Amino acid sequence: MRAIVVCRTAALGGHVNTCDTCGFERLAYNSCRNRHCPKCQGSAQAAWVEKHVARVLPTHYFHVVFTLPAELRPLVHRNRRLLFDRLFETASQTLLTLGEERLGATLGLTAVLHTWTRDLSFHPHLHTIVTGGGLDKDGESWVPADESYLFPYLVLSRLFRGKFMAELAQAYRAGELDLGGACESLAAPDVFAAFKDRLYRKDWVVYQKPPFHGPEDVYRYLGRYTHRIAISNHRLESFDERGVCFRTRHGKKTTLSGEEFVRRFLLHVLPRRFVKIRHYGLMAARSKASHARARRCLERAASPIHADCAPAEGAAPVGDGAPTSASTAAIDNVCPACLSGTLISRPLPLAVGRPPPWGTRP
């Protein structure tokens, strides 16, 4: 919170741009670069896309969302790092296992953790983008999946449920779970056993969204979805004696007291150094050789969907026409007042008596 409060203020220093022709000046304060800051995700998003977009394979993709039941949310909230890790592991293994069993191939997938609803309630779920097929066991050919759906809903749901509950039970037996607060009753073995039975009887939600039609849709997804935060500035409507008013969905608005708004926002601050975007199968960093073979197989196939959807040479990786960093820099250097001079940058010091939000070492 301290980082967000001082973001782009004098507390973090900055620079002043002065026109060498007309003397126009413009202040620009430094950003906090905190990954939860609503104002600091743009550059991080662009850098991430530039780094990873070349690894998108030229095939159709699916978007699968794994959601944990509401009954698990208090337990997940008290064991965020442990159970977020288990969510990644079980969801990815569900997809990779079905890929091997039903297609005889290794899939590629990227998983992104989200923890919020539009009204900022705690709602942990995992978004995955999955290749529409995979590399066969011999690594010699590409095995395509049906373009209308990836795997049956019930198969995905029940396998995911079984894998996650097995991990949860193992963590309970090992004494790894924090069972304080609202979860205190689960410390009794009979209560935990009944809790497990209720979860096993429930159908878990694994939602398959309409498939991507080609790599350009994946670019757009990577650029606009992976670096979302709980709420962005453009959704804020007002702040007055009633509280904070912000837009939710379909034109609706919600008003929360200032304290409740901050409390809900902080529900979605991730543990320190927690990795919320992970790659598996063909997309994993250790699978560079398999990834290259998969690309060669797809290029040999040269089906219409691959040829039509391949991005044009030199095209921007994000499909919204965003300018490159070089063109942005060129625009920013032109004086907006006289339109002929060049802005010269001069650094500003940190504000006196205001340490940076990340603290200082003794």
Report on this structure.
The protein is of the alpha+beta class and 362 residues long. Among the domains are: 56-230 and 267-309, 3-Layer(aba) Sandwich (Replication Protein E1, Chain: A); 233-261, no CATH class. It has helices spanning 2-6, 41-52, 73-78, 80-103, 153-173, 189-201, 215-225, 258-266, 288-301, 304-309, 325-332, and strands at 14-19, 25-29, 61-67, 105-106, 108-116, 122-131, 133-136, 142-144, 206-212, 236-240, 243-247, 253-256, 277-281, 343-348. The strands form four sheets. The protein has a five-stranded antiparallel β-sheet. A three-stranded antiparallel β-sheet has the order 2-1-14, with no helix packed on it. Helix 2 (41-52) runs antiparallel to helix 7 and helix 4 (80-103) crosses helix 5 (153-173). It starts with a helix and ends in a 14-residue tail after the last strand.
Write the layout of secondary structure elements.
Elements: H1 2-6, E1 14-19, E2 25-29, H2 41-52, E3 61-67, H3 73-78, H4 80-103, E4 105-106, E5 108-116, E6 122-131, E7 133-136, E8 142-144, H5 153-173, H6 189-201, E9 206-212, H7 215-225, E10 236-240, E11 243-247, E12 253-256, H8 258-266, E13 277-281, H9 288-301, H10 304-309, H11 325-332, E14 343-348
Antiparallel strand pairs: 1-2, 1-14, 3-6, 3-9, 4-7, 5-6, 5-13, 7-8, 10-11, 11-12
